[in-house]
Amino acid sequence: MSFGDPNNPYGAPQQGQQPGYGYPQQQGQAPGYGYPQAPPVGPYGGAPAPTTMPGSVSAARVMLWVIVGLQIIGVALFAFAAVGVNAAKNDAALQEDDAFQQLADYSAGMLWALVVFSLAWAVFAIVLALKFNTGGNGVRITTLVFAVITAILGIYPFILVGLVHTVLAVLVAVFVGNSNGSAWFNRPRY
After folding, report:
1. Rounded CA separation 172/111 (Å)
2. Would you kindly state where each structural domain of the chain is located, as residue ranges?
3. d(C-alpha 71, C-alpha 145), whole Å
4. According to DSSP H, which parts of the chain are helical?
5. Taking the model in full, what pTM does it have?
């Protein structure tokens, strides 16, 4: 049986001919039918948990270590100043200086209190920096409170020297408080 003209687009294809114009093509399932594919889901239906520390959180940890270094320098300076004031109290030339004696009466104790406070603040920053890998949301909140208090203390008593502390503390608060910090500190631990 003949199908007629070989150039007829509605006729059956000839032996050895490729399907061309007018012949139905075999096509697979076209992508895009149905709903778009959703991203992978983490526990509790959220975004997948980060497996490595985000860059902003890592930068916050580095800034905490810088704050620790500055605190250690402050401890050394306060201790040196306290020793100097204690030594100057017994100087005969300064015994007649009423202004220095009034300053020396309470400043040595105040300087030693600043030494202790600065050392305790440095230890607190060390503990927070060490907990960034394993800590949960409590470490994040504690770091935020630490950064805010550090920024405030950097502004008021130590305006010129504390400016670096203030800038670093504000950056730590921003980096730990953003969504990357939240995702890192709220990630599941297995």
Report:
1. 28
2. 55-185
3. 17
4. 55-89, 92-95, 98-130, 137-155, 162-177, 179-185
5. 0.66
